[in-house]
Amino acid sequence: MSEEKKTEAAEAAVEEKEEKVEKTEKPEKKKSKKDKAQEKLKELEAALADEKDKRMRLMAEYDNYRKRTSAEKLGIYDDATAKAVEELLPVADSLTMAMQNMQDAPEEFKKGIELVGNQLKTSLEKLKVEAFCEVGEEFDPNLHNAVSKVESDEFEENKITAVFQKGYRIGDKIIRHAMVQVCG
Question: How many domains does the chain have?
Fold first, then answer.
């Protein structure tokens, strides 16, 4: 054979091998396309899960923010109410003192003072302001301000024997501590 024919035969053999390789590679390429699609699907699923997680966290954060601001608004309302009521407490003390000391007053005067006292009491109740402290209660330094201590046979130790000034609170917030005398 001549050199040209050998070269042509070699080229034909190479082409045949390349065709065989291409035929065998095509199924591999199909597999790799499937694999690539599955990998892409897994990546997209992971990205979706990540976005869901971010969204859920954002929703939880917003819910916490909403609850926190709502609680702050209520706190601001209670603080403002407490500040206003604090300014009215001397009037309540004066009315209480007037009602306790009006034995010799005319009947109309007594009724007028009692009416004003009841109106003030009703107004404080509407604002959710509660008076506290009675004789005989247990002394609590978180609620009461002890201004004196006495020895007494009729009261147990650490009991309130006299109330000089009522205490007031809104819920758990103390507006004014009660001024008391304690048995000691």
Answer: 1
